[in-house]
Amino acid sequence: MKILITGATGLIGTLLRVRLGDTGRYTISGIDARPIEDDSVADFTLADCFDYDAMAPAFEGQDAVVHLAANAPVETPWPDVLRNNIASTHNVYEAARQHGLKRLVFASSNHAVGNFELDEPYKSIGRGDYSLIDDDPANIPQVDHHVPIRPDSDYGVSKVFGEATGRYYHEHFGLEVACLRIGSVVPQNRPTNIRAYATWLSHGDLAHLVDRCLTADLGFEIFYGVSNNRWRFWDIEHGRRTIGYNPQDRAEDHPME
Amino acid sequence: MKILITGATGLIGTLLRVRLGDTGRYTISGIDARPIEDDSVADFTLADCFDYDAMAPAFEGQDAVVHLAANAPVETPWPDVLRNNIASTHNVYEAARQHGLKRLVFASSNHAVGNFELDEPYKSIGRGDYSLIDDDPANIPQVDHHVPIRPDSDYGVSKVFGEATGRYYHEHFGLEVACLRIGSVVPQNRPTNIRAYATWLSHGDLAHLVDRCLTADLGFEIFYGVSNNRWRFWDIEHGRRTIGYNPQDRAEDHPME
Prior knowledge:
The structure is a homodimer.
Chain A: E1 2-6, H1 11-22, E2 27-32, E3 43-46, H2 52-55, E4 64-67, H3 78-98, E5 103-109, H4 122-126, H5 154-173, E6 176-182, H6 196-199, H7 203-215, E7 220-225, H8 237-243
Parallel strand pairs in A: 1-2, 1-4, 2-3, 4-5, 5-6, 6-7
Helix pairs in contact in A: 1-7, 3-5
């Protein structure tokens, strides 16, 4: 299967190049506005996804695209969100359509629904206070793919935009689209703050999730990208049932140092 | 109450200037990239909402803004959608926040959920075929404010963007926001095609709906803008209960000529 990774030099792009490459089932190409430093990809296009004419040729001959290119910080100022997260994401969908790709995996974000954490019990859980749920994870109402969007930032709004574009491109053009509301992915690959005991997504579980999204049958779906953490409040049952997402890691196995 | 209407020279802007003005309860200002031809507003700013520095001063001293400025055709090409419907809409929310406005009424669109019309019974109803519902409107499942978004176009995606921005600005900055998924509003002020027997919104009902959105208590809400048509498939009960929307017109009272 030939796949293109946008934002291939970033944190997630780099770990996917390695881990998806290790499966031996993908021929991986990359595109990024920054040059790549190693030989982990079959082909690389140095281009900004904002520049349609420069980026679109990279889509030729691909089966699927994993779209990661964006400004990642939740505090990204609006002009950058508009350019790098909205306009560029439209270009990626359009290039996928123009070049007949079958599938697109979109790196959405938990920040598309981040404002649930203004409410209890999520607010307390994020601070490591589990008293409202009597220390029982079974009492945590799961935020699932049916909840209304509640973006917490311009960045979060841009992820809602990307999901909406995905639904449109699926229903009108037949593109298969998986949107991943990704949790806390960090270079250290372990929980690095108290909230992460709910929200952590390990590198291994992320690569597995993307692998399932590239491989399993699907039309348009929204999944949460989170490991099987004891205190998680984002649903993973939909991913488990729909595409066989079976996370192996748990934040509570990694005590704070 | 001092209100600003963006896109004041357009079809809806013009009818709102007249009809809201007739209530005697509003001091109306306008902003538009095109000049206004009459003396129906207290103040007018000739500016493009894409140009923040040019448009923002018009918000000073206003209580609320009715945001209509956008490219209205569902076929609007992406570069215009990005500029005039997305970037400009962000500017309107931001100017409202910066100038301390209390409320924003956003002209969303039925096209944010337009793909329900790919499915039955909406598809048949849109063609004037009521056989699937046994000619009984009580058998039409209503598309309400809880349904997932299903945009039918880049234009529809831009309306999802505007609704998501509204939710964010409400939850983070306290701006009161009403998003109106407006149906078929035409200069003739009557149904002009068979679909409009479901989707028509009369000028009078539209002005009444916007009036209620400016006046009634609300936080963040999504309402459908549709008259009380026999064959409508968009919910009006939420608007009736929440803000007292009480449409007076019915498409079936206007047979096709």
